[in-house]
Fold:
Amino acid sequence: MKLSSTPLNFSKGLLYISIFIVGTAFTGFTSSIESNVYICKGPESKKYHYKKDCRGLSRCSTNTYKVTIAEAKKIGRTLCGWED
Structure:
């Protein structure tokens, strides 16, 4: 009888491993969505930047501001060409 329960235990183990892998992948995905970026609030500004010292922020006419990617996208910003 022990031989017949082994495939079931093996399948159960694979299921747990799969759930762990998928869960871990989505956790990393979520944290990248919520990560902070930098924007310039000047009148011509249209981009967001991962690095505060990005070359694309060098001509910013105002201070730079730290916001989430979601906030930057909500106001119409797209990723800076120097960082993609």
The first helix runs from residue 2 to 33.
